[in-house]
Design brief:
Alkaline Phosphatase, subunit A, nine-stranded mixed beta sheet, 12 helices, disordered N terminus, Sulfatase, DUF1501, Alkaline_phosphatase_core_sf
């Protein structure tokens, strides 16, 4: 490209008058709500997909990465303590375990259990605050996954497949519903630490769909969005020149490469980034929140401050129209407890108990819980057999998740595991069924949300899931 094509405005006014399809169009796009690129990959697809009367407008997924122990949180097993120290009874099928600890002695649960709320929901003393929201929770004790290790488990819980490369659930929701707020991403991911989630960005990727449907990562800490503000020493005029020139190059490059969805997504990201400079600070800065709200989320305690901030940001994003918000706690498989589970889970449960309860209460008092679906769980549970004497191995054959709000009937328990909590034996919900249920709660028939890939009609559940009718109120 010759230097004659580079924009050299002498003033801001002249720049905007001569920018052509550059930043002047970008500013017009922000003011008018119209994108520079046609919205065929967003609105056109969503317009063809039937919507039903699902209540949920947004999903907040609380992902406890590493695998929390259902046996010590929501699924009490008295027989486990009776047989502690013995081998798994011969009457049980021998499972395939990640670390090969199938013949290890059974490990007792040291938890104290109590029933809470009018529903009498069982919750352990590791989550004492959860007693206050017992009647809002639908606890699913019969979840099943195919992922025996973290890579496969996290991949399937996010994408439906143990192998990376398929679109994530958040991408499917974005594809099926579009976005309610053009100034913020439709799919946001927030981690609690700088550690990366297992499989990295593939956990919230778009797979074979256009890249514009993938999640946008917000980091932990006081500045979750990198480079949101203009760098020190860079004038506004210089920033305008740079953005206009980049957009000009991108548009020229894209003109002969319209099938390149990564390039299309990159151009869209520049448009979105411009709009976010005015909208995102309002969504993620918590200075206007009253002290009582900060305390409700546990932001007055060191132990709960990080996840409390994530949960409060999730509420602010949901009320501003973000469709799918996924919060990772324990990023980097911190919930994994092959040893010293008492110390590990005690610390992690303390970090999330108050923030989660604060989130549910805050949504409820604002009238947002009915239209916000909150999902809790990890990629699998833990085994009743011990590992290294004081830990538990991975258990994908029967574990617990819960849902609240968004049209879910609270105060109930769905399904059951066997007497030791090893296998789901009643009302099994595979990951495919969980995904189908979430989409149904959002008003989508998952069998109708289809994306053609290489001549094959693809669905989130790979044609295997069923929405669970009993979860819906």
């Amino acid at each position: 490209m010759s230097c004659n094509n580079i924009i050299h405005p002498n003033s801001r006014r002249k720049f905007l008058q001569t920018a052509g399809s550059g930043f002047g169009a970008l500013a017009f796009s922000a003011l008018s709500g119209e994108a520079l690129l046609p919205q065929r990959s967003v609105s056109a697809a969503a317009a063809k997909i039937p919507h039903f009367l699902g209540r949920a407008k947004s999903v907040i997924w609380l992902f406890m990465e590493g695998g929390p122990s259902h046996l010590d949180l929501f699924d009490p097993k008295p027989l486990l303590n009776e047989l502690a120290g013995q081998s798994l009874p011969e009457s049980f099928d021998k499972p395939v375990t990640a670390m090969g600890e199938v013949n290890s002695p059974l490990l007792e649960s040291k938890r104290k259990w109590a029933q809470h709320g009018e529903s009498g929901l069982w919750i352990s003393d590791w989550l004492p605050k959860h007693s206050e929201i017992a009647d809002d929770l639908c606890v699913i004790r019969s979840c099943v996954s195919d992922g025996i290790n973290h890579a496969g488990g996290v991949s399937q819980m996010n994408t439906g497949s143990v192998f990376g490369g398929r679109p994530s659930l958040g991408a499917w929701v974005s594809y099926g519903l579009g976005t309610e707020n053009q100034d913020l991403p439709g799919f946001v991911v927030i981690k609690d630490t700088k550690s990366m989630v297992v499989n990295g960005v593939r956990a919230w990727g778009a797979g074979f769909m256009p890249a514009s449907y993938q999640g946008v990562l917000f980091e932990s800490g006081e500045q979750p969005i990198a480079n949101l503000n203009r760098p020190a020493g860079i004038s506004e005029a210089r920033q305008l020149q740079k953005l206009a020139f980049l957009n000009q190059l991108n548009q020229q490059h894209y003109a002969s490469r319209e099938s390149n969805t990564d390039l299309e997504a990159r151009i869209r990201s520049y448009e979105l980034a411009y709009r976010m400079q005015s909208s995102a600070p309002d969504a993620i800065e918590l200075d206007d929140e009253p002290q009582e709200t900060l305390e409700l989320y546990g932001m007055d305690r060191k132990e709960t401050k990080t996840f409390g901030r994530q949960c409060l940001m999730a509420r602010r994003l949901a009320e501003r129209g973000v469709r799918f918000i996924q919060l990772y706690h324990g990023a980097g498989s911190k919930w994994d407890s092959h040893s010293r589970m008492e110390a590990n889970h005690s610390r992690l449960c303390d970090a999330v108990d108050q923030p989660i309860v604060g989130l549910i209460k805050d949504l409820k008092q604002r009238g947002l819980l009915d239209e916000t679906l909150v999902v809790w769980g990890g990629e699998f549970g833990r085994t009743p057999m011990s590992e290294k004497g004081d830990g538990r191995d991975h258990n994908p054959t029967g574990f617990t998740m819960w849902m609240a709000g968004g049209g879910v009937r609270g105060g109930q328990t769905i399904g059951a595991t066997d007497e030791l909590g090893l296998f789901a034996i009643e009302d099994k919900l595979h990951v495919h069924d969980i995904h189908a249920t979430i989409m149904r709660l959002m008003g989508l028939d998952h069998t109708k949300v289809v994306y053609m890939h290489k001549g094959r009609p693809e669905r989130v559940d790979q044609n295997e899931g069923q929405a669970h009718k009993g979860i819906v109120s």
